[in-house]
């Protein structure tokens, strides 16, 4: 089989295609023919050497969709999707024609999604699920403020809306609210925190900060009584400050989420929980901006590094 290989860290030019032996499934494993595999910003960071857990040589890639070709008889020929915080870092990843995964991580992809669409769900929606459902435990009727309604934030808005929450988005500029957002607030407008507190009847039950860093102190002030703040990033600052007395008097809670701690099995369970939402139309797959053959992976990685809007997908076995 052909696989994208990372033998040394650097820019996407260090990536090479190698011919490797086709894998065989051992006990508790399955082999998947990878029909589509998206490229995430974390995959680009992995190539650059910014993921300390990665061991080389390695095939990168976290998200995939494909067909089971070896393993338990009941799975042969099944169309499956998956993702994981271990795959592509400490075990060979999805940017290859074939992939070995634990049988326990196998889950059938939504029938109404193409392989390209299914491969683009993983990291964004799993991160959103960890934040909104697991960490924040958002409930119907509550309000959630999402700072940065991009890939992860957009997925969080969909999950929150399906739960039955009121969704407020925060972004730079006066953006129109999307179909899953009840109102958008311009973070550059004077008094925008007062606007958020008005929209949420005194403060949000949940604030999901996808930006982190310089937005942290602002996010704390958006919380209502017993509000929950979830952080997933530290974009421009790792060290932040806040008034601890105000924080505990408000009985606020702070949670961090790192999806790299969810392996293929844990991430697969979340995709299974998400599947019904895609099948009933509550969730929409992200826009696929570009697809590339495996042989053009360097160009695909460069597109992601350049900030291409929409998802970039490899089609290794097509």
UniProtKB/TrEMBL annotation:
Q: Which residues form the Enoyl reductase (ER) domain?
A: 10-314
Pfam families, alphabetized: ADH_N, ADH_zinc_N
List the molecular function annotations (GO) for this entry: oxidoreductase activity
Q: Does the keyword Transcription regulation apply?
A: no
- InterPro entries, A to Z: ADH-like_C, ADH-like_N, ER, GroES-like_sf, NAD(P)-bd_dom_sf, Zinc-ADH_QOR/CCCR
Keyword field contains Cell cycle: no
Report which superkingdom the organism of origin falls in.
Bacteria
Alphabetically sorted, this entry's keywords are:
NADP
- Protein name in the entry: Quinone oxidoreductase
